[in-house]
Structures are given as structure tokens and as C-alpha cells.
Amino acid sequence: MFSPSAELVEKYAAGLVTDHEPTHRAAQETIQKYVRAHLSAKDAGTKRRVLMLVFRGEDAVKKLREVAGHILNERTSGETIRDTFGDYITDKDGRVIYFEPAVLTAPDVASARHDLKLWAQYSDSDGGLLDRAIDYPPTATVQKTLVLIKPDNFRFPNARPGGVIDLFSRTGLYIIACNVLHMSVAQAEEFYGPVLAVLQDKLRGRSGEMARKALEPVFDLAFTPEAEKALGEILGPINGRENWEEIVAFMSGRRPSECPADLRAQPGTEKCLALIYQGEDAVRKIREVLGPTDPAKAPHGTIRKEFGQTIMVNAAHASDAAENAQREMGIIRIEENNFRTLIENWLAQK
């Protein structure tokens, strides 16, 4: 996330008009005017928020430009982002009276490299966790809460992550941070640490009952309630840890019991998207839209009903209390801003 300074906005806008595409100059100038008007701070000094998404892959610039679409709707082919979310309205003399491009993408590889380098230079001062970007009434009780869009949404290219974020927009809350996360085994263990004891306790009764039903036919005898309880005391913690290890593996890519010590702190193989939402009563609002842990019990219209599959593979995580949000944000180190390092390392390889 960025809250661009006037200096960054001006440097970015200046690079939008080029001489090597004279036929596109009118469009470039229209976008340049939009950037200067809508990315700078508002008149009252309230900062703007810009979400920058960095894509990597074959022909990435060309593909993103095609998906974004032309600023003139009649020149697009099929459904694009600007077909759906953009506007380009002119008067009878052809003067632009309203323009909303929806997204901004680089027109070519050289421009993409220039823009990434520029924004990376300002990422420490203008990017990261935008804790003070939104003005709230003095009496407002403002909370921050963490959302993790889970790995099941990133197994293959699809629209699920955007669909989840779209449903969260019902809350009216503000996104003030966004970061791609490859959770390490150590982070996942700490993050889900409190869940271990809960699972072990919760599964005592179920484990005892399952053991009784499995063993009674084998030994041709009836287990007493006391015997069933004793089995649960033994098997519940084992079963709970097994379930907990599956959660850690789902989030990080490795089971803790199978992870070598030297790899515990290394970034995992699974990808999440970490989002920080801010606003009044943020924790409750996010969890209402998210829905219960079990998608089968979630109301229609909630994220877990629409996108979840099982109690573990349930689309997203959201903090259940403001204190836990602080704890979880610390574990994933959401305040660390690695944008500049990421971009500079990539540019150095080219």
C-alpha cells in the first residue's frame, strides 16, 4: 500500500507522457491529469491510498494491459476492468468531463521498469502500513484487524482472491496494508499456537468415542463410560496435535514434526495475502462477513459459505479480537516493508 507524497505523484505523472508513442499522447495526457488530481493528498490534507500489485510472468506487461483495457470503452475487446469499473465521458465537443480509469498499468516493459524503480525509491517514506492515512471523528473507536486470504485461493490463477476482497468491502472498512506472505513453519506454529490446546481438549470426547466403537468389535466386549473417557484422555492430545500439524502444513507447506531445524524460519511454499483493515468495530464487521469456521454452518452470502470447503480449507482467516489482531500482526511482521528490496533485487537481475 502507498500513500504517495506530492513529490512521488509529480515524478510518476511526468513519466506518463512520452514521445515514443505520439498516437497515444491524448490518452497519456488524460491519465497524467487524473494522476495529479486523484493520487495527491486531498485539499484537507487527507492522504490517498494506492494499492500496488506487482505481477511477474511471461508477457506480464502485455497481458495486464489487455486485461485493464483501453481508456475508451468503444475500443476495448470483450470484458475488461475498464469496461466494468471505468468511465470516459465527453461533452458534444469531445472534451473529457469525467474520467475514471479504474487501474493504471504500464504500457510497455521500459515504462514498467521505470515506474517500479520510482515507486521503490519512495516505498520507505510513502509505503507500508498506512496507520494514519484515514481521518476519523474524534469520538470514533477505531480498530485494526488482520485478514489472511488462505493458500487454497492461490493454487492456480483465478478470481477467488478478488472475490473474497470484494465481499469484505461490504464492511465499509479501509485497507491500510497489503502484503504477500509465505508463512514459515515457525510463524505458523506461533500463529496457531493457541489452537493446539483447544483442539487437544475438544477432541478428547470424540477420540474416546471413536476408539470405543473401533475396539468393541475387535475385543467382543462393551467398554464402560470410564474406559471410553480414559481412551479419550490418551488419544485426544495425539489426535489434536495431528490436526494442528495439518493446519500448520496447510499454511506453510511443511508439518512441524517433519521440518528440519534449519528450515523452520525459512519462507514456506504456500502463499497467503495479508490484509489489514481499519475502522470502527473492525473485528466484528470482518468476522460477520467472513462467517463461521465451518463452511457448512456458514450463512449464505458469507465468504466461507461462498468460497470455503472444509473447516481448515475455509478461504480466509480473520482475527477474533483486537488483542489477537495485534499478536498476529506481530508474528507475520506486517509493518516490515520489503517492497524496495524486492524490486531492486529483481531489477538487478535484468
Produce the secondary structure layout.
Blueprint lengths: L5 H9 L10 H14 L21 H9 L12 H5 L1 E4 L5 E5 L8 H13 L1 H4 L15 E8 L10 H9 L5 E8 L3 H7 L1 H27 L5 H28 L19 E9 L1 H9 L12 H5 L8 E3 L3 H11 L6 H11 L1
Antiparallel strand pairs: 1-2, 3-5, 3-6, 4-5
Helix pairs in contact: 1-2, 5-14, 8-10, 9-10
Task: List the defining traits of the structure above.
46% helix; single chain; two-stranded antiparallel ribbon; four-stranded antiparallel beta sheet; alpha+beta; elongated; 14 helices; 350 residues
Which structural class should the secondary elements be placed in? alpha+beta
SSE arrangement, N to C: HHHHEEHHEHEHHHEHHEHH
Report the total helices: 14
Largest sheet: 4 strands, antiparallel
Shape: elongated
Q: Strands of the biggest beta sheet: in what spatial order?
A: 4-5-3-6
N- to C-terminal separation?
25 Å
What is the total tally of β strands?
6
Mean pLDDT: 92
The low-confidence parts are none
The helix content is 40-55%
